[in-house]
Amino acid sequence: MRNRLMKHTAGLALLLCLFSPAGAEDVYLSVPDYMAQQFVTVPPPAMLWLDETQRKAALALSGEDPGFRQRYWRADGKSAWVINVIGKDHPITLGISVKDGKIAQLSVLIYRESRGWEVRHPFFTRQFDQAQLNRGKLDRNIDNITGATLSVRALQRAARLALWLDQQLP
Amino acid sequence: MLKRSMLAMAVAATSVPAFAAQSVEDLQKQIDILAQEVESLKENGSSASPLDKLSIGGYGEIHYNNYLERDKDDQIDAHRFVLFFGYDYSDKVRFFSEFELEHSLAGEGKPGEVELEQAYIQIDTTANTKLTLGQFLVPVGILNETHEPDTFYGVERNNLESKIIPATWWEAGAMFSQDLGAGLTYDIAGHSGLNMFTTGGTPNKIRSGRQKVAEANGNKGAVTGRVRYAGLPGLDVAATVQYQQDVFQAEPGFDSVAGVLIEAHARYTLGAATFTVQHAQWEFDDAIGVEAAEEQSGLMGEISYKLTEKFGVFARHTELDWNDGGADLENTERTDSTAGVNYWIMPRVVLKADYTDVHYDTDGKDNDADDNISLGIGWSF
Fold it and tell me: Which one of A20, A110, A137 has the shortest CB-CB distance to B126?
């Protein structure tokens, strides 16, 4: 009896895949869908170009190098950014919108790390709502998720970067 | 690099005569289109270079243990040097691996080992489910799956997750994971089992039973299930149950020794303070041969407090009741009381120092023998 149970355990895992609900694909957002959530009428994207001095300043503040340019969307006094940031060793793609110098919404668009996928849920990301920079840091503590520490840190770096990028807009 | 190359191509493509025929607006439009294409490639994780699909990471830790009241030499040890290699076949299919050198020097008569700790394919079967196939870390405990030194307090890992949960513990098989939403997840895995029987060795010692998927005896396997709730920021509650079919991997016709591991832990962070409790217990069939070894367990409690973003203090108490195998007919009962500090030079580079007082409730054990002050440096990237 036990032998049969054990031999079919791997098969059970595969069967669970077949019976698992498949209707939740929209948990991950595409960039157009994220922007549609942020704006009544999605504006065309624009490009923010950054020189070496600005890149160094961004790196010092956020821990992330934004590169020499960042694409953004801007309307209704709000800017929105798509930022890739590495948690442990894979990139996490985030959508972050900023209004009045505060984060309006942070969403995980694609999560690629092996563990820590809980950070994509609103119960975690809403901690960032209305967060702003205070002396180069977020003005609030972001509670960690055990086992997702590196992803949590990555989201905090991305949040600081988005707030800094918003400050650079003319 | 790719982005620069494409923009350079755009500029190169606009030869001088063509430039004369095109307006600045047209050129700007071309650059915008190229930039959009680059951004799209970046978001979709696809590019012309296979190197962009490759990920590399790692961690390491070097320890110094000063034994306060023992004649035995103090020790300095490059305990772990680990490299991760991963490859994204697509956004839904990924490869992960972990390659480790322990104790700096491996080989015949050397203290260390070269180990393949993880090598698996992970498939996103839906947005909320994934399948892991290959050699993976057993989903149990706090440290077994996440043990980069910058993520925990203490120079050495606590002994509950060494002697009861034999971390780092990996097996080969299949694991299905589902995110039920609102912070509730579960994992169920079927995988290779322990082999605690070693002729002339330490037959009842759990840690020695790890086969490390190295030409492992596969006569009998194991099933592990874990349920986890992390739906409130700062809270993590999880419970794992594992059934081992036969931890002696006996040939057909011989007595088998089944085992059940139950582990549960809760961790809650409130502001700068974090509170952790963890319990793990094994029960083995009486065929294991040593009555005391039929039950082995551990209990751990830890409080930590971050005084600043970079500086934290902690205190930890661990009680263990385990069998050290060999000729030990009685279990060893041991209490570790540890206090120390972590200082993060950078978020992923940490200096550690702690003091551990070890107390044995077992006759014949020197209560002061293992008291130590330890120093360490750890990093991950």
Answer: A20
Over the stretch A49-86, which tens digit does the pLDDT of each residue have?
999 999 999 999 999 999 988 999 999 999 999 999 99
Which residues touch B293 (CB under 8 Å, ≥6 apart)? Answer: B204, B284, B323, B331
Using an 8 Å Cβ cutoff, are B99 and B117 in contact?
A: yes
Question: Sign of dihedral through CA atoms B277, B302, A144, B262?
Answer: negative
Q: Are B186 and B177 in contact (CB under 8 A)?
A: yes
Indicate the angle between helix axes B2-13 and B24-44, nearest 10 degrees: 150
Q: Distances from the Cα of B160 to the Cαs of B281, B296, B312, in angstroms?
A: 10, 11, 22
Residues A14 and B174: their CA atoms lie apart, in Å, by 8
Phi, psi (rounded to 5 degrees) for B114: -100, 125
Q: What is the pLDDT of residues B76-101, one digit of tens each?
A: 999 999 999 999 998 889 999 999 99
From the list A3, A25, A150, which residue is nearest B127 (CB)?
Answer: A25
Residue position matching structure tokens 């986890």: B228
A1 lies within 8 A of chain B by CB: no
C-alpha triplet A6, A12, A18: angle, nearest 5°: 170
Euclidean distance between CA atoms A113 and B189, whole angstroms: 19
Q: Is B122 close to A13, i.e. CB distance below 8 A?
A: no
* DSSP category for residue B239: E
Using the Cβ of B380 and the Cβ atoms of chain A, whether some distance falls under 8 Å is answered with: yes
pTM of this prediction? 0.81
Rounded CA-CA distance A102/A128 in Å is 9
A127 touches chain B (CB under 8 A): yes
User: Residue B337, by phi and psi: left (phi above 0), alpha (psi -120 to 50) or beta?
Assistant: beta
